[in-house]
């Protein structure tokens, strides 16, 4: 399979990726870990989470701190090298493409953060079917509302047999470091239902969870 051209851009961004892509990496990533694992069915401590398009493996430590095992895969060799440099040899990391990757063992949860856009829309039903083949409990992905057709995404998941699709808003900004009161305000806002949906027209991302076919 031909290497997607976008990976060359990510190769060049690999060094210090989390530090330059997130304004407040420890707080943002810890909160994101709580949100993605808390959306949809519960996991058990020790369950394995596969992070597809993991970049520098920035979710590894936050997910491990919640008691989960972490595996990361990314199409950029430079990103995986950066992940190895920052995480050491104890974390399973592989180079692999969204278009073809299948892990050696099934996992409880597959995670796809800021990366569903790299699966072409026409390929999504097949992608979601392949992910269903190795995911036991849930798939969690995220996207900004303006970037994706949510109805099409839901239809593609359902066409691939996924059920129990749930969504929740996530308002903590990636590029601005909020002080504690504002961080708390975003957390409160996420649970306000109609108000949160209104705010999602201007800011925030959706976090979706889906359950694989039995
Ligand atoms: C915007 S970054 C997001 C990284 C990480 N999930 C995060 O949230 O910080 C997208 C990642 O997807 C990877 N990627 C893009 N296209 C890919 C593909 N076709 N196969 C595997 N990885 C890909 C890039 O190398 C990059 O690390």
Structure description:
With 214 residues, the chain is α/β, with parallel strands linked by helices. The protein has one domain (6-211): Rossmann fold (3-Layer(aba) Sandwich), CATH 3.40.50.150. Helices cover 37% and strands 21% of the residues. It is built from nine helices and seven strands. It has helices at 6-13, 17-21, 25-38, 60-65, 77-87, 124-132, 150-159, 180-189, 194-199, and strands at 48-52, 69-74, 93-95, 107-112, 135-143, 163-170, 205-211. It has a seven-stranded mixed β-sheet with strand order 3-2-1-4-5-7-6, with helices on both faces. The longest helix has 14 residues, at 25-38. The chain is globular. It starts with 5 loop residues before the first helix and ends with a strand. The model has no long low-confidence stretch (mean pLDDT 97).
**Cα separation of the termini:** 30 Å
Coarse morphology: globular
Q: Which cofactor or ligand species appear?
A: S-adenosylmethionine
Task: Going across the biggest sheet, name each strand in turn.
Answer: 3-2-1-4-5-7-6
- The CATH topology assignment is Rossmann fold
CATH hierarchy class name: Alpha Beta
What structural class do the secondary elements suggest? alpha/beta
* Count of helical regions: 9
User: Uncertain regions: pLDDT < 50 for 5+ in a row?
Assistant: none
By CATH's scheme, which homologous superfamily applies? Vaccinia Virus protein VP39
Mean pLDDT: 97
- Topology as a string of helices (H) and strands (E): HHHEHEHEEHEHEHHE
How helix-rich are the residues, as a percent range?
A: 25-40%
Radius of gyration: 16 Å
Oligomeric state, counting identical vs distinct chains: single chain
Number of domains: 1
Major pleated sheet: 7 strands, mixed
Q: What is the name of the CATH architecture? A: 3-Layer(aba) Sandwich
